[in-house]
Amino acid sequence: MTPDIDAANAQAVDQMMSARPILKGLGTAAEVIPGMQANLILHAGPPIEWGRMSGPLKGAVIGALLFEGLAKDEKRAAEMAASGEVDFAPCHHYGAAGPMAGVISASMAVYTVENVTHGNRGYSTLNEGYGKVLRYGAFSPEVLDKLHWMNDQMGPVLAEALERSGGVDLRALLAEALHMGDEGHNRNKAGSLLYLKLLSPWIAEVAKDDALEAKILRFLGDNALSVLNPVMAACKAMADAAHGVEGSTVVTVMARNGTDFGIRVSGLGNDWFTAPAQIPDGLYFSGFTSQDANADIGDSTITETAGIGGFAMAAAPAIVSFVSGTPKDALNTTLEMYEITTTEHKHFTIPALDFRGTPTGIDIRKVVELGITPRINTGIAHKEPGIGQVGAGLVRPPKEIFEQALVAFAERYAL
Amino acid sequence: MTQVSFEIRRGAYYDSVVLMQLQRALVELDEVTDAGVVMATPANLELLQQNELLPADLVAAPEDLLIVVRAATEKDAAEALSRVDGLLARRRAAVEAEFRPHGLDAATKMLPEAQWVLISVPGRYAAQVARQGLGCGRHVFLYSDNVPLPEEVSLKQVAADKGLIVMGPDCGTAIVNGVGLGFANRVRRGRIGLVGASGTGLQAVTVRIHQLGGGISHALGTGGRDLKAEVGGRTTLQCLDLLNRDPQTKVIGLISKPPDATVTRRVLSAAYALGKPTVVHFIGYPAPARSLGNLTFANSLSEAASIAVRLERESSATTPPAKAGDGKRSGSAVTRSGRRFLRGLFSGGTLASEALRTLGILLDPLFANLTSDSAAKLPDPLVSRAHTILDLGEDEFTVGRLHPMIDNDLRIRRFRQEAADPEVAIILLDIVLGEGAHPDPAAEWVPVIEEMRRAHAVEVPILMVGTQEDPQNLDAQRKRFEAGGAHIFEDTAAAAEFILQRLGVGLLPEGQPVALEALTKPLAAINFGLESFYESLLSQGAQAVQTDWRPPAGGDDRLAAILQKMRTNT
User: Fold this and answer.
1) How far is B125 from chain A (nearest CA, A)?
2) Quick one: fold of B104-327?
3) What is the pLDDT of residues A238-286, one digit of tens each?
4) Domain ranges within chain A, ordered by starting residue
5) B48, B96, B550 ranked by CB distance to A286: nearest
6) How many interface pairs between A and B have CB atoms less than 8 angstroms apart?
7) Where are the domains of chain B?
8) Which pLDDT belongs to residue A87?
9) What confidence tier does B323 reach under pLDDT thresholds 50, 70, 90?
């Protein structure tokens, strides 16, 4: 029985759009992520073993083992990772999504986002801000100190604040941020301010002293990416709602581990389709060039998968200059993505396109037929662990992974 | 030894991207070895420090803009800093490229009013693009060649079912509502509508009409193979029907390379059924008559043009011709009764041959006991089939008898036999007067004609050859035959016209009729392929979208085959 692909895709994107992700709370990974283990390290992208991991991912893994107290120093951590004493798995296998290296270990604080329409959940860590950070593979004492502060000081306050607030409707927040110049991936300035605005009264109520309150508010307010991680968990919850529709060719995961780029497709179960990740094209910070760049990394491409990020470029003309573009190019980017997607989003709209919905639900058929790969906005990591972000720009997934998926679909459904 | 200089602009906010661009512009200056342009946040200052760009004595707040340059000398550094404002103000040349969609879905969203899809991509991909165009309800102008014939047949079948037109494949020329598609000349707009299977033929005729002071309503191309037997003239028939209904068109011209015989009959039957004067020129095809009903046959492209111009002037000088779809198609009372065939019983072989030629272009199936391109050979001369024309002067009938010009007996017996056939509507006779012929044909024929008309309601047209000076006297014979209910004609074309009228010859186009809007709405099109076609549309004031077309699946046949299967499954 051959599937009605169009009907299956319509169902998949309808589920993706009707998913309503609410940021419900915060707890340690071990507490909130089902199946999380003390010796398990989750990472961004498709599955990968230690030996093939890129610099920033290795650095983040080492940092996590130090943070957990599982290893006393870098050397021991690397030994543990190489010897199989710790297990590795993609965040995506656990309903989670992590920016850049995307490493999650058992005692890290993670947000829980619940899709209240279908009941599934998405998880992500707290965003660490800029500079030396674990997600870019840094693991120096200051990095770990900051993580501990986030976990031990800020985490409980946010957890309590979120509980008192009754939850943050992230779909509504994103819809509003798109009207304020964000695209939800590289630019989350407006969304982060909205997030701060929503939480600050509750933080003020909960924080046990003014100094901590001020420090938390400043930490969230100084970071234009504060909301990125909850947004990614929300996108994961929305994309997962579209997964597993028999006969659907809609992409439900796009993710990179710094070595490989992988996708999953709604009607193709849990198989990954992977190929080597590429070096993004973009602008570099002072003192860095593309020679310093690591191959594309991070689960943040879940935003494009859910119909925002690069797909909503037309909403965020301020950031097109990353690829030497003009506001017109931003419009053209979104127009191009309409050609490879299934529908226009019911909730995420773009003022500059007369409030047309964002392109939503990447269809592998269209990608292969037209030769247009998804457009992704991304940060660029240094290839050595611990140096951090060196730029930002544009990348497209390798087209082979969509071709592989198409061939697999033909086999799976005996076409 | 290098020099690091800096500048602080207090409270000057710039988007980080602008700053990164400024930084890149500074680094590109010859005298500058490195530069940093940042808002002076702690994280940014740390970055500068890592790159040894952090000035030692800096006092700056996060809302301050910090510009640092490293150069060989202090003078070079100062020079670079002095150029910051110029670099900030520098605006990239406005390269505002319009979005070019790759696929048809996006193109139709950009120009929903586009009724036409122009296709000039390589032939092996063209049919698929055409199919997509038809799939979303668009007419197709298919310039590409090397489209396999079965694909053409299939595309035109799909189009007919949906009330759409496929001009082509290998259609070089068309003018729709004043806008040339593909290769077309700038000619005056007017009331002559053309259909052509030949692109250059259409160009030659439109140009000649223009030179003669006439004008073109539309010139519709069909593609060179449309009149082949396999395709059956589908597009030609649709175009004729469209032009017939188009209020702008008063005269129709039909131009083609030599068509297949069967298709010729179909196309001419359709043309004959039109309510408008129609010029026909099939290159190399001998005209069956100068004119037949509304059809006028031309012998050259140039003559086709001049006849069209003349007919157009005549038609605008007199009352317009009968409305489209008038009585011809519905058929006469005779044909409605189930009597629908012609039988011709000739005494003269040459007259029989001429009747065959003239009627043969429209009557189908047509049999004869003569060898002719226009008719099939009757297997048994004693038993007529469908439409039949017999020369009773042939040896097979005259062995042991007098010639039928002298002896009417054989023809009269056959006349009775034919009239008694319940499928026969019309019996055509020739009556040849003069020296040596029967002295009084009316005396023998009129009683039989009267009897058979009463009994079987057959119509009897008669081709009469004679003069007033003949012993039988033409006028006297005519009067007596007419009194008996016969219709007398003195040339084949006139008799043929009577017959075709009575038989209600004419072909209704198959499939859904094409909406007239295809011709009457302002032309808007989506162009796949040759950019010059797109530019030409714009320069003619038409709306158009140029697509950035690429072979499906990058030309990978295996993937394209999977995509095709996925399409047919949904």
Assistant:
1) 12
2) Rossmann fold (3.40.50)
3) 999 999 999 999 999 999 999 999 999 999 999 999 999 999 988 888 8
4) 20-232, 242-412
5) B48
6) 117
7) 3-89, 104-327, 332-503
8) 97
9) very low
Q: Which CATH architecture has domain B3-89?
A: 2-Layer Sandwich (3.30)
Interface predicted TM-score (ipTM) over 0.90: no
3-state secondary structure of B426: strand
pLDDT at residue number A132: 87
Residue to mutate among A1, A146, A285, A402, with most B CBs inside 10 A, is A285
CA distance B524 to chain A (A): 21
- Compute CA distances A222 → A129, A193, A217, A229, whole Å: 8, 9, 8, 15
Does residue B563 sit at the A interface (CB-CB below 8 Å)?
yes
DSSP B509: P
Least confident among A172-181, A394-403, B256-265, B558-567: B256-265
Q: In the CATH scheme, what architecture does the domain B332-503 have?
A: 3-Layer(aba) Sandwich (3.40)
Pairing of strands B486-489, B376-377: unpaired
- Output the pLDDT for position A327: 86
- The rounded distance, in Å, linking the Cα atoms of B41 and B85 is 22
CA distance B60 to chain A (A): 17
Amino acid at A40: L
Out of B82-96, B193-207, B238-252, which region has the weakest mean confidence (pLDDT)? B82-96
Q: Which residues of A touch B23 (CB under 8 A)?
A: 286
Write the single-letter amino acid at B72: A
**Nearest Cβ partner of A410 from B15, B552, B565?**
B565
Q: If you classify domain A242-412 with CATH, what class do you get?
A: alpha beta
- Spatial contact of A138 and A388, defined as CB atoms under 8 Å apart: yes
Domain A20-232 CATH class label: alpha beta
A297 within 8 A of A45, measured Cβ to Cβ:
yes
